[in-house]
Amino acid sequence: MKVKGQPMRPIRATQDGRAVEIIDQTRLPHDFALVRLETLEEAALAIRAMLVRGAPLIGATAAYGVWLALRRDATDEALDKACQSLAATRPTAINLRWALEDMRATLTPLPAAERAAAAFARAGAIAEEDVAMNHAIGRHGLGLIEKLARPGRPVNILTHCNAGWLATVDWGTATSPIYQAHDAGIPVHVWVDETRPRNQGASLTAWELANHGVPHTVIADNAGGHLMQQGEVDMAIVGTDRTTANGDVCNKIGTYLKALAARDNDVPFYVALPSPTIDWSLASGDAIPIEQRDAREVTHVWGRVEEGSEEGVVLPVRVTPEESPAANPAFDVTPARLVTGLITERGIAEPSREGLLALFPEMRLKAAGE
Questions:
Q1: Which of 88, 115, 147, 264 has the most CB atoms around it within 10 Å of its CB?
Q2: 368 among the known binding-site residues?
Q3: What confidence score (pLDDT) does residue 369 get?
Q4: Which reaction does it catalyse (predicted)?
């Protein structure tokens, strides 16, 4: 995708071949900055502190993190330490574990002298595979948007959090059908949930859509149900950090409420995901670990000062009483019964064990509950 007309990805290897470069997403939308990662520790911090976020991008960053570790020490002990360190950064997104297991399986049989080069090659391949899967998701989702298109009005799509190209290596998951529809000349308009407490919708999805020229409107998180009641939402498309074998979907906190509102108003509710986001080992969403993040994300907001001596400076502002505690569960689980369909790189699956296995029959032996 593009930033001010220039092709850009949220992660890429540097030209000198000694590091990876990421977009610092904590500084968007007010400041665009690239950060160089040269060590395992820097890669782990980038994931933990959400300089990179989104399940597919977390997986790609972790893969490059293994490479950075093995450039320094390629022993079995170093490989184990790197995988353990990276796995501990974020507990919910399954792509993280998937990427680390893939890297371990690729590198363990190799002699130490060959591991760093192999790690770099495999990390790059994981990134390119993600791009291809997300583009395919867009092709399948495009058909859904085409069916809703009507002369004289745009297709109004509601999304939650950021499942765009900033959350992947390119195209995004939920946004890939939107970008492809826009590029094909189909009028679309996106309702962008702000997505408290970190405001990934307001800060990231809106920034992406604005850069690509896609019409959109940022709304408060609780406005989606009202817009559905008024007939202003034709469909919802969200991403997911982990989908279980039965089609339950774990996504950013607030997704479940949007799915309930969509069901009550007969609005199609789709989830877009590449296959590495499917956790075949879990029978249902009840077993997904839910990340509990720092309460400060709830008690404070960050914003750019518009007036006064500090104009243009980005500062934190407390919005809750000093005496009030805050809880910050980062994700919730939407039951498969509330999902219209799962948009994958192989097609649109019914949100059920058999629906997923119809597209991924090779996973039958791994699917929990079989």
A1: 115
A2: no
A3: 62
A4: 5-(methylsulfanyl)-alpha-D-ribose 1-phosphate = 5-(methylsulfanyl)-D-ribulose 1-phosphate; 5-deoxy-alpha-D-ribose 1-phosphate = 5-deoxy-D-ribulose 1-phosphate
Average pLDDT for 202-208: 96
Q: What does the DSSP 8-state code read for residue 334? A: E
Catalytic residue among 193, 241, 248, 332: 241
> Is 90 assigned to a binding site?
yes
Domain count, the chain: 2
269-272 and 341-344 strand pairing: parallel
CA atoms within 13 A on the CB side of 47: 28
Single-letter code of the amino acid located at 224:
G
In a shared domain, residues 118 and 149: no
Q: Which two tokens stand for residue 227?
A: 């817009």
At residue 245, does pLDDT exceed 70? Answer: yes
258 is in an annotated binding site: no
54 is in an annotated binding site: yes
- Give the count of beta carbons closer than 10 Å to the beta carbon of residue 62: 32
Using an 8 Å Cβ cutoff, are 334 and 248 in contact? yes
Task: Note if the pTM is more than 0.85.
Answer: yes
Q: How far is CA 247 from CA 159, 267, 285, in A?
A: 19, 19, 8
Q: How far is CA 98 from CA 102, 187, 189, in A?
A: 6, 37, 34
Burial (CB < 10 A; 0-12, 13-18, 19+), residue 331, is buried
Rg (CA), the chain: 20
One-character DSSP codes across 97-141: HHHHHHHHHHHTTS-HHHHHHHHHHHHHHHHHHHHHHHHHHHHHH
In a domain? residue 11: yes
Q: Note if 241 is an active site residue.
A: yes
CA distances from 270 to 202, 217, 304, 343 (A): 21, 20, 34, 7
Q: Which two three-digit tokens encode residue 27? A: 């500084």
Tell me whether residue 149 is in a domain. yes
252 marked among binding-site residues: yes
Show which of 80, 99, 130 is a domain's final residue. Answer: 130
Q: What residue has token string 């796995």?
A: 87
Distance of CA 154 to the CA centre of its chain: 25
